[in-house]
Design brief:
- The longest helix has 24 residues.
- The protein contains 13 helices and 19 strands.
- Strand 3, helix 3 and strand 4 form a beta-alpha-beta unit.
- The chain has about 475 residues and is of the alpha/beta class.
- Helix 1 crosses helix 2 and helix 12 packs parallel to helix 13.
- Strands 2-1-3-4-5-6 form a six-stranded parallel sheet, with helices on both faces.
- Bound molecules: 5'-deoxyadenosine (5AD) and iron/sulfur cluster (SF4).
- Iron/sulfur cluster binds next to helix 6.
Length: about 475
């Protein structure tokens, strides 16, 4: 494993390695020397912070950045002022971009007070040329700007910045590269995300992801299995397989393999207790996957199946390639195979041209599908996507009214669903100390529902049987059953 590479044995005077990830380990070794020198000058450790926006993919990427920074000698810090801060951005909706600009405004003042501070910005927002142009022009205090396709190159870019003292900008248009064996520093010791595929080929008409994350590329099954075995050996009991569309995993590999087959292999890994995955596109959800799930002892009975809209007309316009009826049929199939399954979804309200009738179709699906929870989003116009160019954008007040109605129905359904396990005793993976309630910890059922229970840090990372004493809408209050 490269993670165990002895950085001190890397010859800093040797020619720069051509292959990846060795080339980056070479730069990490250089930066380690630089960090040590700075530490000696300052008489303290250098600190870092990764501020992550957006989805699980970004969270996983940030663990890689943290791994690289720690190898360089930086230590994580929650302080307001740190020596190195990295913004891993999201651009799926407009408000994600706004948040980043808000933060950068504050950082500008901080950097003036602490000139040694370094700021890097990366992620999906950097794949938008207009945003990068704006940053280069008006945010000159930024040190490193890079995108989603070259995250592995972070040490090299940082080295360049240290050497030249100038802003480094490196954004690629796309890539077919997958660099394995990068270091990683997990946020949780007992659970982590595992990338299985990068990018997306679906081009839903509202979505910017295919433009900023590029074409779909699957990792080889053997690389995935090896990584999971490594993290399990290191104490991980729950993994989340990550891809924009996990159901199309493996189709373009030299030796094609289905997502269901991959799951069969993952299931065999000893010591692994829970398997989750995200996200499934309804158009590619196979019977084989449902069967594998139903037979599995490790795959959590939770399915996230984004609906987006309940109207067949809107779905067609969105390029989703399924109908309202087909979606409900899939829900039925999942419930037939696994009656206890928890379903969650994503819904967009106010897509261009959405009529009251279309919206009522969405409400109808929510009513019929009995979601345990749903992420509801107001349509956000993303420049460059086909839907953004449409003239029939929906007025704000209409969208707001629909959004509120949807939220009320989702909440009502969610409360009904949560009630179902009240009084039962079920396994809970304890994840963290409860930040609100002293003497409590928080965990999750395999159904992904949150449970708060009395306990201390010794329970973190353990799966314990918990009596779900009280259902409170979206979560439970419970107690460990002795
Ligand atoms: N506006 C609102 N929501 C969006 N999503 C993706 N693009 C947009 C957009 N332009 C939502 C979808 C997707 C989730 C991750 O984000 O519901 O499933
Ligand atoms: Fe976006 Fe559709 Fe791809 Fe999901 S499947 S990332 S919504 S384009």
């Amino acid at each position: 494993m490269f993670q165990n590479i002895d950085l001190d044995t890397i010859d800093l005077l040797a020619p720069i390695p051509e292959g990846e990830p060795l080339r980056q380990y070479y730069y990490i070794a250089h930066l380690r020397k630089w960090v040590a020198e700075r530490e000696a000058e300052l008489g303290r450790k250098l600190t870092y912070q990764c501020r992550t926006f957006g989805c699980q993919m970004n969270a996983k990427d940030s663990e890689k950045f943290a791994g690289m920074l720690e190898l360089m000698g930086f230590v994580a810090s929650e302080e307001k002022i740190v020596d190195f801060v990295l913004y891993n951005t999201c651009t799926v909706r407009e408000n994600a971009n706004m948040k980043v600009y808000g933060h950068l405004g504050v950082l500008k003042t901080e950097k003036k007070k602490h000139p040694g501070m370094m700021i890097a910005i990366c992620g999906c927002m950097m794949q938008e040329p207009d945003e990068v142009a704006k940053l280069k022009k008006t945010y000159r205090f930024l040190d490193i700007i890079f995108g989603t396709h070259n995250i592995f190159k972070f040490p090299e870019l940082m080295y360049q910045r240290v050497q030249t003292g100038k802003m480094v900008v490196d954004v690629w248009n796309g890539t077919d590269m997958i660099v394995e064996d990068l270091p990683s520093e997990r946020k949780f010791s007992f659970k982590c995300g595992i990338n299985i595929a990068y990018g997306c080929n679906n081009f839903c008409s509202y979505c910017i992801v295919p433009y900023v994350r590029g074409r779909e590329r699957s990792r080889k099954p053997e690389d995935i299995i090896r990584e999971i075995k490594d993290v399990v050996a290191d104490g991980v009991v729950e993994i989340m397989l990550l891809g924009q569309n996990v159901n199309s995993y493996g189709k373009t590999l030299e030796n094609p393999i289905s997502f269901a087959d991959l799951l069969r292999e993952v299931e065999k890994i000893e010591g692994l207790e829970r398997i989750r995955f995200m996200t499934s596109h309804p158009k590619d959800l196979s019977d084989e996957l449902i069967e594998v799930m139903a037979q599995s002892k490790k795959i959590c009975r939770h399915f996230h199946l984004p609906l987006q809209s309940g109207s067949t007309r809107v779905l067609q316009d969105m390029n989703r390639r399924y109908t309202k009826e087909r979606y409900l049929e899939l829900v039925e199939k999942l419930r037939m195979a696994m009656p206890d399954i928890a379903l969650t979804t994503d819904i967009i309200v106010g897509y261009p041209g959405e009529t009251e009738e279309d919206f009522l179709d969405t409400m109808d699906v929510v009513d019929k599908a009995d979601y345990d929870s749903a992420y509801t989003f107001i349509y956000s116009r993303r420049t460059g996507t086909p839907a953004a160019a449409r003239e029939d954008q929906i007025p704000e007040d209409v969208v707001k009214d629909r959004f509120d109605r949807l939220l009320a129905l989702v909440g009502e359904k969610s409360r009904e669903r949560t009630d179902r396990f009240e009084g039962k005793t079920l396994p809970v993976l304890v994840e963290e100390k409860n930040s609100q309630l002293e003497g409590y910890v928080t965990g999750r059922l395999e159904y992904n529902t949150v449970v708060h229970l009395p306990g201390d840090e010794s329970l973190i990372g353990k799966i314990v049987n918990v009596k779900l004493e009280e259902a409170r809408g979206f979560y439970y209050m419970g107690k460990v059953e002795e």
